[in-house]
Amino acid sequence: MERTEKMEQAFRDKHGYGIEEYQNDPQKIVEVEKRRERDYLQGQMVSAMIDRQAHRE
Predict the structure, then answer these.
(1) What does the chain look like in DSSP terms, one character per residue?
(2) How far apart are CA 40 and CA 13, in angstroms?
(3) pTM of the full predicted structure?
(4) C-alpha to C-alpha distance for 43 and 36, rounded to whole angstroms
(5) What is the pLDDT of residues 13-39, one digit of tens each?
């Protein structure tokens, strides 16, 4: 996938470093993937909570 300037800037804003720096540092890869997993799980919990509230009697 071709990276755009916007993609690079968004990654830098979110993680504090660029995509190339991320790709060349195994520790940064682990850090980012842990953060993504945490964000995903948090989103799943919020989604489940909203779903439960929407289906109350």
Answers:
(1) ----HHHHHHHHHHHSS-HHHHHT-HHHHHHHHHHHHHHHHHHHHHHHHHHHHHT--
(2) 18
(3) 0.73
(4) 10
(5) 999 999 999 999 999 999 999 999 999
